[in-house]
């Protein structure tokens, strides 16, 4: 479990085995069953999750009981509830879509690790900016892209999720109806595009 | 001009006049006419902008020549092209909607300032996380909210923009048609809601 996080970090910054051990003493591993709700609106989550196996998602349920998926987090992704960093209650749910094993990361982990390993501050800065770039792109897609463009973007971002996730959840993430998604998939199949 | 930035910072972190002078020596002031394009897709922007007067926006133009507005930046807002932080070409345009005076902030300003004033790192961390929270909320609104809910959220976020910005631009930001926006405004007026 910890090896996966160590590899993730070592791909991005210089971390020795000793340094990794020092900064990892407060991390715990936990396995959750499918459909386990870890954070609900109104709660303050004390942790971020680094997924080593399985799949989590972040979502809202609106006044019409429609589920709106903000993010999927498969293996080697992080997922966290950002309001909790400011000790404010969550706007969203986080749950497991599959049985999931995750590292439970104390919420100021990267900030604290930066005290031990200065280049962790750079990593945090890059990860936060990448989240912003990623979300700007998503907002742009939601404002402008066709259902087909959104779906093609989704399979580029999450190449192994199309068979793991129910179609209605993908439609929810894309902001289209399940019927539109079904049409898009049929059209792409006709064009011999592997979906 | 510089006073406005100093006040902005002093509201958020402890900065003395001397410290502010030290970290501000590379900042320039510039006034731009209306409709001036400052960054276009494919370009690398060397700067962020802190608006002291006027209004900028960040947007894309899609394959159907439709304009999609990602962000407005009126007085006391920051606007920047995030790809440039990684020396990658911009995905978006940034231009002025009104004649605008802005401080031209070197792109690593807050990181560099953190060398002089350690609490700048906290400010940067908070600002980046707030951007992420803000965009998660916007994605959620685009996935789930009605045209009226989106408009009410817009006037809460940008209280003084509804009269300054052409209606089609507000519709573009909200991801609705100008006709829908016109209907929403009429409905709200009937309910005696000040729009």
From TrEMBL, chains A, B:
Signal peptide: none annotated. SUPFAM superfamilies: cAMP-binding domain-like. InterPro entries: cNMP-bd_dom, cNMP-bd_dom_sf, RmlC-like_jellyroll. Residues 30-115 form the Cyclic nucleotide-binding domain. This is Cyclic nucleotide-binding protein. It comes from Pedobacter lusitanus. The lineage of its organism: Bacteria, Pseudomonadati, Bacteroidota, Sphingobacteriia, Sphingobacteriales.
